[in-house]
Amino acid sequence: MSRIAFITGATSGIGAASARALAGEGWRIIGLGRRKDRLEALADELGEGFLPITGDMRDLEDLQRIVRQLPEEWQGVDLLLNNAGLAPPMDDFQDADLSAQLNAMHTNMDGLVALTRALLPSLIERKGSIINLSSVAGSYPYRGGAVYGATKAFLTQFGLSLRSDLSGTGVRVTSIEPGMVETEFTLVRNGGDHEASDKLYADMDPLTADDIAEAVRWCAMLPANVNINRLEVMPTNQSFAGFSVHRDT
Predict the structure, then answer these.
(1) Whole-angstrom distance, CA of residue 12 vs CA of residue 82
(2) Predicted confidence band at 193 (pLDDT cuts at 50, 70, 90)?
């Protein structure tokens, strides 16, 4: 029987790209997301090896139900990819809409913790893996990123501490921390403003969803005795010196 990966935020970007990458290695994929049409399209693409599940990371009770009611042939989860997340608009915190900030916290932290806890029995039984999609924003501050950066710092620390708790179980825990990746993420953050999204990535050759999916695939396929604790990935033209970006024009 092939291994099973449970991927959150599977409807687009890194989640969808990771589903394709792991499916290419023979994994079966449980894809969780809010957009049913996107999940169905991915199911059409990947076939019977993809189980689409519509759900919201903010609904903690529903996440528990989803895990309890997985079909029997899909219950042995070997990998949890905690990819779902969002960022509020980049307003200074003192000027920011509080509801948008809290929404990011509920999505990026509360739901992730609840789902991870629900899947741990299977992951422990199968000596599986957890890969958390964090961000360089959790390590390096920038203006307008107070809450988003804090949620990603939480995710990184959660993973490191969880690895301590799981010592001796055989479960691997990895934090992948990308820099600038051109996906729908920034478009959503800016309320659908294509111009703002295009301007952010102009002339600097950002990472792609496929780049990070390759990192996910690599970590997932390593021998069982190898654990990548943290993997920080940036485009060549981005550095951590105040998030300085070199542009070609």
Answers:
(1) 14
(2) low
Question: Phi and psi (nearest 5°) for 206?
Answer: -70, 170
Helices first, then strands: H and E counts in the chain: 9, 7
Q: CA-to-CA distance for 155 and 149, rounded, in angstroms? A: 10
- Within-domain flag for 80: yes
pTM above 0.70, yes or no: yes
- Total tally of structural domains belonging to the chain: 1
Domain extent for 133 = 4-233
Selection from 136, 225, 120, 121 nearest residue 175 by Cα: 136
Long-range contacts for 217-221 (Cβ within 8 Å, ≥24 apart)? 217/18, 217/21, 217/22, 217/24, 217/25, 219/129, 219/131, 219/174, 219/176, 220/5, 220/22, 220/25, 220/27, 220/79, 220/129, 220/131, 221/25
Tens of pLDDT, residue by residue over 20-79, are 999 999 999 999 999 999 999 999 999 999 999 999 999 999 999 999 999 999 999 999
Residue 148 annotated in active site: yes
From 140, 142, 148, 201, active-site residue: 148
Position 125 in a domain = yes
Distance CA 62, CA 52 (A): 15
Inside any domain, residue 244: no
What 3-state class would DSSP assign to 112?
A: helix
